[in-house]
Design a protein that fits this description.
31% of the residues lie in helices and 10% in strands. It is an alpha/beta fold. A 5-stranded parallel β-sheet has the order 3-4-5-6-7. Strands 1-2 form a two-stranded antiparallel ribbon. It is globular and about 65 Å long.
């Protein structure tokens, strides 16, 4: 059974005039179980709901009589001028929803002059993605040990990425009820191209009174010493993704990180977390950090696989 429900359209379907229209139309092209995977959050989806609808509590105040003759949307970030303050967040397994996977996303990002953060779990190898001219960052998942992590990092560096983003808040994948009910599974043919050459993690033996999560999965997450080591492996800008507490931001800054990405993983890893907008407002004032440091990217409630 194919994982693509309906072939991609060669043109924009009639009636699509906004982003929300695309979201509704997308279900016509995805199997039900894949759609449930894409659109779902973890647990009862409280955090997913807060992310999306939290912005409704804030209004935009317009000002009149302003002179816009010299205005533009460009921003300076890590020595580069970006056309606008938007960066495409990493999204795993894009082959689930389009045969061209990350290639198609890279084409769209480049057309919009938007940096694309390539996921460790992309279905297209990082080298093939960066072969298209553009501004590429790489989202690094810690691979349980330094040897495998360094191998993945070097592959990204050789592919020509310009920024490294390590995700710190997803050592254990979130329990997503909707995909479970729909019987979702990753098709065997849909490989994680960047991880195919890495050795499988060594099995961990647990005592009867130990927790598989706390003493198993969580033991493979990076600690402070690992992040200090990672900082020494590259001169590229290094960002930490998945930060929601100001104290963690200070620790990462002291380690030598160049920025953080305020994120609760789209509500897909741990349910019950505060919405990102509130977290962002908590960051800047008490830390007295620059906005460039505090906010490298924050998504506005977009659901990502």
């Amino acid at each position: 059974m194919t994982h693509i429900k309906k072939p991609a359209s060669a043109s924009i379907p009639h009636g699509i005039v906004s982003i929300s229209d695309y979201e509704k139309s997308a279900r016509d092209y995805m199997r039900h179980d894949i759609a449930e995977h894409v659109y779902s959050g973890s647990g009862d989806e409280q955090t997913l709901y807060r992310n999306r609808y939290g912005f409704q509590n804030y209004q935009i105040y317009n000002r009149v009589l302003a002179d816009f003759s010299e205005s533009n949307t460009s921003v300076q970030l890590f020595g580069k001028t970006l056309a606008h303050p938007f960066i495409l967040a990493p999204v795993a397994h894009q082959g689930l929803v389009h045969p061209d996977g990350e290639r198609a996303t890279a084409m769209a990002a480049n057309a919009m002059q938007t940096p694309m953060i390539i996921s460790s779990l992309s279905n297209i190898p990082v080298e093939e993605i960066t072969a298209q001219k553009g501004n590429y960052w790489f989202q690094l998942y810690w691979q349980g040990n330094r040897v495998a992590t360094l191998s993945l990092l070097k592959r990204a560096l050789e592919a020509g990425v310009e920024v490294i983003v390590i995700t710190l808040d997803a050592a254990v994948s979130g329990v997503r009820n909707r995909p479970q009910r729909a019987g979702f599974f990753l098709p065997e043919a849909l490989c994680e191209a960047n991880l195919s050459d890495l050795p499988p993690p060594a099995p961990r033996t647990l005592e009867p009174d130990q927790s598989p999560a706390l003493h198993g999965f969580m033991q493979d997450t990076p600690g402070v010493e690992d992040l200090l080591w990672l900082r020494e492996q590259t001169n590229l800008p290094l960002l930490a993704k998945g930060v929601t507490h100001p104290a963690d931001a200070v620790r990462l800054m002291n380690i030598g990180f160049d920025g953080i990405i305020v994120s609760n993983h789209g509500g897909r890893t741990l349910d019950g977390m505060p919405r990102r907008l509130i977290v962002l407002l908590l960051f800047a004032k008490p830390l007295e950090l620059s906005i460039q440091y505090c906010l490298i990217a924050v998504s506005a409630g977009v659901r990502t696989p």
